Amino acid sequence: MASLDQQTAPRAHNDVTKDNLVESQSKIISCIAQATFVSIDTEFTGLGRGPSQNTRASNIEERYVALREVVLNHAMVAFGLSAFKESTPESPESASLETSYTADHFNFTLLCQVCSSLCNLPSFSAFLTGFLGQNAYTVNPKSLSFLAESGFDFNKQAISGIPYFPGDIQESNRSDKFNVAMRQIFRRLLTAKVPVVVHNGLLDIMFLYHGFYACLPRRLDTFLADLSDMFPQGIYDTKYIADYLTREKASFLLYLFKKYEREQLKRKTNSRKTYVTVAHNNVIVDSPVKAPHPLNKSAAKHCQQFANHGHCPKGVRCPLSHDLDVILDAEMNKRKRRRKEEHSDEAKPDTESEESGVQAPSSNDACDPPATTQSQSQSHSAHFDAYMTGFVFARQALTYSLATLQESHVNRIYLIGKSFPLIISKSAFAGYSESHEAQRPQLI
């Protein structure tokens, strides 16, 4: 197990490409099989914004149809997976308070090989189109810019990306070793029967289903029936939990991660509070991703738009700070001022509650996460988003207990613009898709 120095290991993960996928496959499958839970994230080439892509339709069936079109006509470029395994705390003295995990992180660089929209065609037309070499997919300019600004290496993708063929597996690619390996890894995620964790993860789930399992069903109820059977331990959405259970002020991933990271460091030093720690196993390859723009730490004020939603239309041109440490410090100071006004004779800075988002210590060894200096934490990558999602879930499970989450908050996926989640369950009037029915015997 490696002790990671934040100056030399800005990203602790296994970088998986076509050059090492086959030899890494057994390690990946073993990590999934032993995991307590697995968190995932994907990066893809577009969101399908526009009048013809009604991805935020008020009718959920219509929204699914629009999102399905997005998935069929775009491609995954990266898949992040973090396998968290509950472990015994190193110190016997802390065993009653500490919930300890070891974690392995994998970043798969992907290169789609065929246009998924063939799933919309009759079988003969699909065969003919595939035979003639139809292999294009849509890349949205804004998504391309976002990936580039986040440090995504397109040269690496072109040279070493893992080739994969989305949709139902065809005889023409059944023997492709890379395609087979990715599908076997995904299938192990299903047969391991472990909870799977996402953050605002509907599109992530749809891309993974279509990329490594089968063509997306045309109907939402069929898709939900398949998912309920594929993931027997359920899917958890940390954004749904943050919005509906913990009622956080903001629920975008980086905010939750930075807040909970501070909180857990504080709780560990308290010596009377329960807390979460995460240790990270050795890596195969480490590929640091750096943020392309320096952060404005000296800004007197932070951007409230970014603080609330995690994005700002002005982007790097915004004169206000997008630094999460600045934002969390401002929230802490606001709470301190309010407490001083209400309890001026009792309020002291060193008695701040662990929920206050106190200033984090200079070292982050207490939680031992992949080092996240402020210049790095703004970079965006599938493996680190998967890790942050898992860390947030570990904190949520500590606070509310996994049993509570299993009872009332499993299989509820966050829906943008809705006051209710998407519930993953099999309707009495819906059947499984033909593709899933064919693969069910292999999942037992």
From TrEMBL:
Kindly list the GO molecular function terms attached to this UniProt entry.
3'-5'-RNA exonuclease activity; snRNA binding; zinc ion binding
- C3H1-type domain: residues covered: 297-325
**Compositional bias of type Low complexity: which residue ranges?**
369-380
Q: Extract the InterPro entries matched here.
A: CAF1_poly(A)_ribonucleases, RNase_CAF1, RNaseH-like_sf, RNaseH_sf, Znf_CCCH, Znf_CCCH_sf
Extract the ranges annotated as region (Disordered): 335-380
| Position of the signal peptide | none
Q: Keywords assigned by UniProt?
A: Metal-binding, Zinc, Zinc-finger
According to the UniProt entry, which residue ranges have a biased composition of type Basic and acidic residues? 341-351
Q: Can you supply a Gene Ontology BP term from the record?
A: snRNA 3'-end processing
Q: Could you tell me what this protein is called?
A: Ribonuclease CAF1
Organism per entry: Basidiobolus meristosporus CBS 931.73
